[in-house]
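user: Kindly work through both lines:
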Amino acid sequence: MIRVPVTSLDKYAAYLSEDDYPLDLLLRDLRGQTPRTPAMERGHAFAVAMEHVAEADRNDLLTAEGHAFAFTCDAEIEAWPRRELKAEKDYGGIIVSARCDRLHGKVIADDKSTSHFSGDAGVEKYIDKWQPRFYMDIFGATSFIWHIWECREIDIKEPRDYPGVRIAWEVFNHHVFTLPRYPAMEDDCRNFALEYKTFAEAMGL
């Protein structure tokens, strides 16, 4: 039996579609042998900050893991309950696991930070991923909503006011779009999971 997180399936999908993602790098990524990039560090800190937004003194300035996020865009952070939910599903000898940040009824919402969002191409980048499909299938949801927050690094003018903060970001733009569930989604997820299973067995993962 193989157990794999949804993130690994998206890495495998990227390997299949991108010429500049070689097999050796994919295998290191799947085995957890690749150190975090600065963008990954920012993304993880942003996710932690958003999880604790209800406890913050103000929701236009959030801090976590040495990062500060100053929200200057005209957007509200949704007040949905923010707690990590874990679930998994057996697709036939391969168990796919998922960790959902926000689930409200049958709607999943996900926050992502990025340094650049390029309109329609940016929407396609996220909608083409397997994460929303597997999340909807595993959690029984009917739609997946992205909240994409554009960030740029800024100077910390008064570091004494923010102890432990090493890097500050202005969150200057906000994009929202949705992928609905579709009839063949479960079959698509099962077929791709089984394709990955064959690959993982061949690679000794």
Residues 80 and 102 are 7 Å apart (CA to CA). The chain has one domain: 2-203.
